[in-house]
Amino acid sequence: MTNFENNSLLTMSEVNVGFFTGSSPINAVDNVSLCINKGEVFGLVGESGSGKTMTALSIMRLVLPPGRIVSGEVLFEGDDLLQLSEKQMEFVRGRKISMIFQEPMTSLNPVFRVGDQVAEILSIHTELTKKEIKEKTINLLKNVGFDEPRQKYNQYPHQLSGGQRQRILIAISMACNPSLIIADEPTTALDVATEGQILCLLQDLVQKNRMSMLFITHNLRVMKSMGSRIGIMYAGRIVEENLVDDFFRESLHPYSEGLLDSIVKLKGTAERLKTIPGSVPKLSELPSGCKFHPRCTHVMQKCKTEEPPLVTIEKDKRVRCYLFQD
After folding, report:
1. Could you give the percent of the chain with pLDDT greater than 90?
2. Exposed / middle / buried, residue 243 (Cβ in 10 Å: 0-12, 13-18, 19+)
3. What is the pTM of this model?
4. E strands, the chain, where?
5. Residue ranges per domain, the chain?
């Protein structure tokens, strides 16, 4: 198992998630190890289909058939979440670890008032009276930026904008003051102005409440302002871990270089965007050796036959690439 420091809140060690749809399983999460420290925002970045969301769902034990957590360990506050009973895990979800899902437009129940949907998690995980739950819910709505929280309490999801719905989901995730929040693409489908407001809100709430966050995104521009450490995923694997500032100054993995080169640079010039050649392979048709080698500009013969291990370069820096093996 991977060794991390004692400051860790959650440690994933060699977690594998397989999908059993044919003669052999497809590995959506392949031997993933990562650590989220107390009070930090850890960013998980990669293209669609890289395994980011499935990594989050494995932490929450919400992988659905035909998917299955095959092996590994997820230590959280001293307990291996993968070994808990379903009843014990229900206690963890929402109370200890909460998740903000991708789609604010579809994650709320359209037939219930938004206030009741926030209040529901308090009724499940606390012993507060109905009156106390309502007052705490209204206070939560105020904390996520609603000027008239009592009015918002009585509205339905269809009466709210996308940004307002996302604030409701954030209120639900914050209701029981969890130690860890998993934010899975929380600004998807939001306009740039609303995106900025939601990101500022998340940063403010995490700092005020001294929470940790796993922030999942495909947008490096967003990650630059959000996290302290970053993990890059490709084809179900972590290929780089780095400090955010160091990553944007000098990334390690060739895939990371390609991602950074493809960011739009607002310089007022008509500079042509660079792209990564090829496309992300299907998980059912992965190449041998390094999974990135067909698209890599630094490819060596060894890359085509043997997959490089994830090695530690220095504290908080790991990379899966033969350029750093010797």
Report:
1. 73
2. middle
3. 0.92
4. 8-19, 26-37, 41-45, 67-76, 79-80, 97-100, 180-184, 212-217, 229-234, 237-243, 311-314, 317-319
5. 252-326
